[in-house]
């Protein structure tokens, strides 16, 4: 079993290669890997569209150009030579007979299922019956279930034909540069490591804001909502990396073990500390049901009951049609005692540590100094780092994840136990969702979200690249 995780896939087979994810993300990621000479395997696309290989190549070229990626004909030429195509119905056993003839049963393949979750089980079972899984891995896109019971059912179905080390559950947030680098930022820097616990940190805020609505995705989104779409997966995975203990080694399970410990230490969320919102006009989006109660905004409070974080409240918020597109983690330090040398023995404002995940990833330390123009006032001092400026061009999330999947690095993928724990954490909110509060497009959500943090630090204006300031 251990050898499989270290074996580089000899072939990449992408189910759903003519779909939106391939057009928006996959072709660009493959092109960037080709440019960096990190692709060394043929790529077989599988989909129901009756097209030729030449048409697939043209679609790939159009997608890459449309992404804004600088287009190098020589690089794309190498990628195009890797591409082949097999049309067919993924629920038909005949397709897998053809696949076995083309691929063979002794190759190590990466099967990437860019398909609806309802097809994960049938595809994997067909691959197993065709003898195509012995040395291979299978990558699946979120959502992995829609609640705890369905996640367990899907895990059971996949584990009937696959070992856990053969399953790669893709969450593109885990491929973002600052998320992937959190382990190093926290534990390789004493300046941060010594502050990173309940003795120094008073509370944690995580914000994921989008300045656009559901748009043409109304039919999909209305059955999902913000809690399932981004909190159960993206934000809880980020929180685990923020809160975990240092891994004991570099193995695939060492990191995932520590993330799972965080989830196990978290009590289930309480509906009394949960706010749902829906932006005005959502019900008019095509595909949205009349009178829909689906939330487009959520804010919630969580706890981690372990030695490092006991007593530190954690606030998460995520929403659509908000003023900005930004994702950040913000840690507030505890306040110092009143300072006797100040005219009114004032207590300084809390320091803040801000990790911006999107856009323009970076790290900010917000300190306090005395205002030279007003000796009785405080002034914020910001120590900022832009990762792109200081560390070079970032690797794109799908580029990072595809390469990790091909070479068998499972550290960037969610594990079965963590998936089930995150569904457990949000289960009470799914069972007792509460009312939906309307909010105006371009606002920071319903007023009830402000009440959620009453008695704590208020929600902060995010640190944005454009204005470089944060209140």
TrEMBL record:
Among its keywords, does the record have Coiled coil? no
> Which molecular function GO terms apply here?
glucose-6-phosphate dehydrogenase activity; NADP binding
Sorted UniProt keywords: Carbohydrate metabolism, Glucose metabolism, NADP, Oxidoreductase
Catalytic residue positions: 234
This protein's superkingdom?
Bacteria
Q: What is its EC number?
A: 1.1.1.49
Q: Which residues bind substrate?
A: 172, 176, 210, 229, 320
Q: Does the keyword Oxidoreductase apply?
A: yes
GO biological process: any one? glucose metabolic process
InterPro entries per UniProt: G6P_DH, G6P_DH_AS, G6P_DH_C, G6P_DH_NAD-bd, NAD(P)-bd_dom_sf
The Glucose-6-phosphate dehydrogenase C-terminal domain is annotated at 184-459
User: What sequence ranges are listed for the domain Glucose-6-phosphate dehydrogenase NAD-binding?
Assistant: 13-179
Q: Where does NADP(+) bind?
A: 48, 89-90, 142
From the UniProt record, give the pathway where this protein acts. Carbohydrate degradation; pentose phosphate pathway; D-ribulose 5-phosphate from D-glucose 6-phosphate (oxidative stage): step 1/3
PROSITE patterns the UniProt entry points to? G6P_DEHYDROGENASE
Provide the Gene Ontology terms for cellular component. Answer: cytosol
Q: Which reaction does it catalyse?
A: D-glucose 6-phosphate + NADP(+) = 6-phospho-D-glucono-1,5-lactone + NADPH + H(+)
**Pfam families membership:** G6PD_C (PF02781), G6PD_N (PF00479)
What family does this belong to? Belongs to the glucose-6-phosphate dehydrogenase family.
Q: What does this protein do?
A: Catalyzes the oxidation of glucose 6-phosphate to 6-phosphogluconolactone.
Entries under PANTHER family matching the protein: GLUCOSE-6-PHOSPHATE 1-DEHYDROGENASE, GLUCOSE-6-PHOSPHATE 1-DEHYDROGENASE G6PD
Q: What is the protein name stated in its UniProt record?
A: Glucose-6-phosphate 1-dehydrogenase
Native species: Mycolicibacter algericus
Q: Which gene encodes it?
A: zwf1
């Amino acid at each position: 079993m251990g050898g499989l995780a270290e074996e580089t896939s000899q072939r990449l087979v992408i189910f759903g290669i003519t779909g939106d994810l391939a057009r928006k993300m996959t072709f660009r990621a493959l092109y960037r890997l080709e440019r960096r000479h990190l692709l060394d395997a043929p790529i077989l696309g599988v989909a129901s569209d009756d097209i030729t290989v030449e048409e697939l190549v043209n679609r790939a070229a159009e997608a890459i150009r449309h992404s804004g990626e600088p287009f190098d004909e020589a690089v794309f030429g190498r990628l195009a030579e890797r591409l082949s195509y097999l049309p067919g119905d993924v629920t038909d056993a005949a397709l897998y007979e053809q696949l076995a003839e083309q691929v063979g049963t002794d190759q190590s393949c990466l099967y990437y299922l860019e398909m609806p979750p309802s097809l994960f089980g049938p595809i994997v079972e067909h691959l197993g019956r065709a003898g195509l899984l012995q040395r291979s891995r299978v990558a699946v896109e979120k959502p992995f279930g829609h609640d705890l019971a369905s996640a367990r059912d899907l895990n059971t179905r996949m584990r009937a034909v696959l070992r856990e080390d053969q399953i790669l559950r893709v969450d593109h947030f885990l491929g973002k540069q600052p998320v992937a680098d959190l382990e190093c930022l926290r534990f390789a820097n004493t300046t941060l490591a010594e502050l990173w616990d309940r003795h120094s940190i008073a509370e944690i805020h995580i914000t994921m804001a989008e300045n656009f609505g559901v748009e043409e995705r109304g039919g999909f989104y209305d059955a999902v909502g913000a809690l399932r779409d981004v909190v159960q997966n993206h934000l809880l995975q980020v929180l685990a990396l923020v809160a975990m203990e240092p891994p004991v080694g570099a193995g695939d399970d060492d990191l995932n073990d520590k993330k799972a410990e965080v989830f196990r230490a978290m009590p289930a969320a309480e509906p009394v500390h949960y706010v749902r919102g829906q932006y005005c006009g959502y019900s008019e989006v095509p595909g949205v049901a009349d009178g829909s109660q689906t939330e487009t905004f959520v804010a919630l409070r969580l706890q981690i009951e372990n030695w490092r974080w006991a007593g530190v409240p954690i606030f998460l918020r995520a929403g659509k049609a908000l003023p900005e597109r930004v994702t950040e983690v913000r840690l507030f330090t505890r306040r110092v005692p009143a300072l006797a040398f100040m005219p009114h023995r004032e207590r300084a404002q809390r320091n803040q540590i801000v990790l911006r995940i999107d856009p323009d990833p970076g790290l900010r330390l917000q300190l306090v100094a005395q205002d030279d123009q007003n000796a009785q006032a405080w002034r914020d001092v910001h120590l900022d780092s832009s990762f792109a400026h200081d560390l070079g061009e970032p690797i794109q999330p799908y580029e990072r994840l595809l390469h990790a999947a091909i070479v068998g690095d499972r550290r960037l993928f969610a594990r079965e136990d963590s998936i089930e724990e995150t569904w457990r954490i949000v289960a009470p909110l799914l069972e007792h969702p509460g009312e939906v509060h309307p909010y105006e497009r371009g606002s920071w959500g319903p007023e009830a979200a402000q009440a959620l943090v009453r008695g704590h630090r208020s929600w902060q204006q995010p640190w944005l690249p454009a204005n470089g300031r944060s209140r």
